[in-house]
Structures
1.
Amino acid sequence: MVGAGHTGLAISRVLTEHSIDHVVLERHEVANSWRRERWDSLRLLTPNWQSRLPGYPYRGKDPDGFMTMPEIAAHISGFAAATSAPVRTHTTVTSVRRIDGGYHVVTDKGEMRCRSVALASGSANIPYVPEVRQGAPERIESVTPFDYRNPERLPSGGVLVVGASATGVQLADEIQRSGRQVTLSVGEHVRLPRMYRGRDVLWWMETSGVWKQRYDEIDDIERARRLPSPQLIGTQERATLDLNVLRAAGIEIVGRLATIRDGCALFSGGLANQFALADLKMQRLLDSFDAWARDSALDVEVSPPERFEATHAPVSPRLSLDLRRGEIRSIVWATGFRPDYRWLEVPVVNPKGELRHDGGVVREAPGMYAIGLPVLRRRRSSFILGAEDDARDLVGHLARFLSDGARPT
């Protein structure tokens, strides 16, 4: 197992239940990404009661709250200790390649052979920054969510935040509150209210079955896996953070960053269409919740159906911004993440750096599996509560692989 985050530890727990010998290799400490690769104020998007792992539910006093990063790191570390997971920390995998009968794994602490390898290193190892970054003037500081810790570490002056998924809207809101003027560049996005009919929107996603939909039931699985994360934030007030809220806070909304030419950022038009599409998709989802509540006779247990104000597009959004004039002093690239498979010497990665797999089964490399990627086996696969079902499916396949011999069909 490569990676001792929540997904790697979930598979470890299920492997132990099947009495399958294994080892979990971790380059730093258990739950490393939660400890080292997040900004100071970040909280989980999912309520605490959804932070359950195999045989290890949330045991705190605030099930409807949202864990801080130190809290989630402690939660995952507690799971590792409770399950006696065979983790080797501070062991960096530098190479994995095919050999007869399995795989040869090289680490900075030695080498080993194994019949099967599971990749649990995550989907957010490297921030994705578009090539247009190269056109930004050198005097403007560029940071990614891995670099960002808090607004005080940014230069004084205006900030351009590129990207309006969960990360982008959260950072835009925090930076604006620090007194810096924020311009937010918005492309495709997923709008959701934090609360719907008196329940957390992710309660609806889980209980109505939307999150349980399998990958092989989705018409366009590749598009589903590329969708940006929903515009949500975890706060004690369980507040909604959408573009209307950000505009009311004084943030300037512009279109998708198309390019930077001669020091000038150029934004696409069509914001109104982007907003209308996001609003339409949100309403269709909420309508499906309403239909499920009626069919399940739960209408009496929740509040009446709600309708939300449409996203207001600026009357005349600016289409360009001269980055040489000093209005913008820093750019935050909240443009997504990608996995890092540079150590994987098996030809199973496409030119975009994405692993080719079928629900986590890497069919081109028998005995290789992956977990923790977006919509891996279900829509909830990349969330903590999605790890158990995916782990059980994959370990079931792995157990059959081992029992059938080293080279099954």
2.
Amino acid sequence: MTPFDQSRDMLGRRALTRVSEARTILLKRLGNLHPTAERVVLAEALDRVTAEPISAAEDLPPAPRSTMDGFAVIAADTFGATQSLPAYLNIAGEVLMGAAPEGRLERGNCFRIPTGGLLPDNGDSVVMLEHTVPVDETMIEVVKGIGSGTNVIKTGDDIRAGEQALPAGHRLRPQDLGLLAGLGIDEVGVYRRPRVGIIATGDEIIDHRQPSAVGKIRNINSVTLAALAKRSGATVTDYGIVSDREEIFFSTVARAVAETDLVFFSGGSSVGVRDLGERAIERLGSPGILVHGVTLKPGKPIIIGLCNSTPVFGLPGHPVSAMVCFDFFVRPALSVLSGERTADCPPAPSVSARLMRSINSAAGRLDVIRVRLVRDHDQWHCRPILGRSGAISTMSRADGYFLIDEDSQGLAEGESVEVYIYQ
């Protein structure tokens, strides 16, 4: 007699796992994975993750520069200057953009200088053009005194030679590329983009370009999930629509596991006689199934597994459920596989908003409520978008979502919620 598995109910379903626990289980298992590093030129480095710390080999800026149009001066020459008692300075030269200043600045003199111009030797500050009055072509009045260093960015004020510019595990943003360009760096060590394999399952699924037919459903999930994966920095291989026949499904999943770094299939995660996902993961490598079913709505029937070193996800067939599961589980896994330090990942952008209607929830599950944001004077409000997890239009109309945690039975109209913005 087969012993009774106490982790399952009478229908053979595993006990549900809390969302936070499921994510902890997953990320702990992925913690020992080490992505492959490569070097790329700066133009190809956007959204890549640094594989090593990057240090400045030189000061930035390498020499002091003006931050204003005006006159380079020795600050002491302007001490006490006012409109009624101006300081008079001789114009002894002019700084040209892209050229080193000619000559040394002496007391009682000034140089014309544009924004970004190099400060002449012995000059220590810049008087704004608006705080001067021309006397003639050779002299100005300074009508406001300034201190040393005013309107000047000094050598190394941006970053000093030897200072760390960027840490390892940092996802490169446009401003980071600008910093590296300013330091003269054109090649960076980054981790290889994770390779993601996508499989759509079900004999009822047809290509989205085909005409609709009775009993058939266009393949929404492969399109949306591929887009989400690419936004997460991955490259995608679409293994197409796979039959529910065991030999075809198993061989396709095995091929995807062998060829990519992370695999997910959609449509095979619900409990039933046609559910092959769990068996495929268990067959393809240890430790196998980590989680099957979470306290999440929508998204409860997700399968999370690990075939040797390859994460495999069985995502629900309903498009909304599949996208929610991607956000909660697949995206964090891709961050790890990208080399990103998950503890230091920036939080998802969000806004506080007032709930425009009461929402009930069942205790013991994490509810993801899609919303439309409405601005009223200086306050954001959010209107829940209700609909079944198969209705993709509810995602398209939504600006974001808020959460009702497992210990709550709902929220009342007017309560403040944190709305996480869909990108």
3.
Amino acid sequence: MGQCIEEIEFTIFDTETTGLDPQSKDRIVELAAIRIRDKDRLAYFDSLINPGRAVSFEAFKVNKISEEMLFSAPSPSEVIPKFMEFIQGSYLCSYNAGFDLSFLNNELNLLGFKEIKDVLVVDILKLARNTIPNLESYALWSVAKSLGIKDVQRHRALADVELTLQVFYLLNDIIKQRLGQPVKLENITNI
């Protein structure tokens, strides 16, 4: 049978960006992650990134990351390789994984590295839709609220990773209760 998720290392990650579309030259301005096994937090990763371009007013309104904050931040060529080393040997998790992966893969392409393709990525948004159907909204803050989490979504990468991690744990608890047994990897990926 499949591997219990308590035995697996996951990296929950999030990005903040200059805008919504990497194909329009939007870039990552903040990247954060927490590496876990079961309920143990193994390591943290958190960095601002100087994207070498302006942050859109719309993005600033959401994440409050100003160009002044990024002026002395490290470049993508300094941060992205460290992040890739950080995630090595773990499964990735993200809330709305397609968005975060598109930006991460764009940064990898710009640096001349291979995209992330052969790594299992758990999309916690899809997991939420499958586990708690019929919510009015599946925004991270809305799912967190429906699960009784009091923290608010701050739209800063590490804070959103913390919130996503809480959601991940509670969704897995729901699945475990429904199954009446420990959650296997296929229970959270085959959705």
